[in-house]
Amino acid sequence: MVEANSFYQVAKNEIFGRFIVASKNIKQGQLILKENPVLLCPQVGGPIICFNCCAQLKKLFFCPDCRIAVLCNPNCKNQFHNLQECTALKSLPIKHDDVLSNPEIVTPLRCLLWRQFNKNQLENFLQLEAHLNFRRDSQIWRRNRVNIEDVLFKLKILDESDLKEEVVQKICGILDINTFDVRQPQRNRLGFNQAENLRGLYLRAALMAHDCVANTHLAVDDDFVLYVHAAVDIPEGSPIYFNYTDVLQGNDERKRRLLNAKHFECQCSRCRDSTEFGTEMSSLKCPRCHKGLLRPNPWQCSSCQRIFHDSLIKMTVTECRRRIDEFETPTIENLEKFLKKLSFTFHPQHYLVLEVEQNLVRLYAQAAPRTKNLNRKIELCIKLLDIFQKIEPGISRIQAIAMYELHSAVASLAQKCYNNREFGIEEFVKKLLTAENILKNSIKYLLYEPMKSPEGRLAQNALSELKMLRLSINNIQLGEKKKETRKPKKKK
Ligand SMILES: [Zn+2]
Ligand SMILES: [Zn+2]
Ligand SMILES: [Zn+2]
Ligand SMILES: [Zn+2]
Predict the structure, then answer these.
(1) Is 108 part of a structural domain of the chain?
(2) Taking every annotated instance into account, which residue ranges of this chain make up the domain SET (predicted)?
(3) Which ligand has an atom closest to residue 303 CA?
């Protein structure tokens, strides 16, 4: 199924099933894969989206041709609801009411339509991992049976043999396990929360194995095109990994998510290391001796040796999580206060602490550029960057954004101190050069983001800021030189 490509080939083993490996040495930054999705669908239980452009629906329209496909406007066409799908839908004994009253049938139905016009794609799709044995008779299995299988059978889209072959369960399993979360591009200016996350199915990228330390950098642009770059050098024969989970979560949290969603237990280098590369992102302070650290698992104090029950740790983490989520309009003051409280219980680099600190960086970025605020923002960015480099080495979005924030605080602080005559022009230039360097490093990573994406737009902003910064450094230096050449004249 995967065409001979110069960078990877398909391999197979017990742990990963089918997966792709580097077919030659791949250099950091190399584009390994660029792929269009064969399917975009809402999250499980999500609302129906436009069949064609995948936008959320403000008003309902139906395709003027098949009268079944739901569209965001009657003229939306030629993207995902193409002529072939339209014709296939038209041939079915269903009406649009059947679709509207059973929104969960939409995605499996669209996969089943491939039987009529794209058998090859269906075959490739059905080869992907579905973990049927793991899912059989689970809650999600029963839900799929009632909400999808039974409905499609009654509508005569499925026959007895489809039921016997568990076609719907297979389709749902494959989608749950192999899709990537993609963002709906912003079509309005209402802000970030408006965008509903979608799931995108990419047949080739789905063959990448998971590792909590990815060797690739993934990005999806506003047209849902997926780009996979090598985040680090990848030697020939090495699997090409992506990180399915959130790199900013601790070991337990990631494990739970992987088990739920992908049905496997990760054995990567980070998951096997209770210190998580020395970051201590899951470590708590011992509530008894207040000296040692508790690391998973067992949660034994490194100093007094006492072992704490797993449920106690879980409760502590859950309670903290709840309190973080409770902040509706967080302010610098209340988050800083909350951080102090956390410091009694958690290691200063615990992932929950880091999450609060990242929120703080965002708030400081919007706050008045007071010296105190800028210094604190710099301190936080440096701390976070150090950790990000350990957990996401190589080309990294979180590193790029932290560096971007760091540069802006360094530059603002330099300007402020210079204006206040806290240091002279030489020191001012030195600080601006530091900011320039940090910004250049940020841009180096941001340039792997597709142009048509929020990060790609940040890259464009960063580039123009770099130009401005360079210009002001040049001007200051030029001004200095002029002064120097003027000085001797004055003496005469
Ligand atoms: Zn549309
Ligand atoms: Zn149609
Ligand atoms: Zn792992
Ligand atoms: Zn202890």
Answers:
(1) yes
(2) 17-244
(3) 4
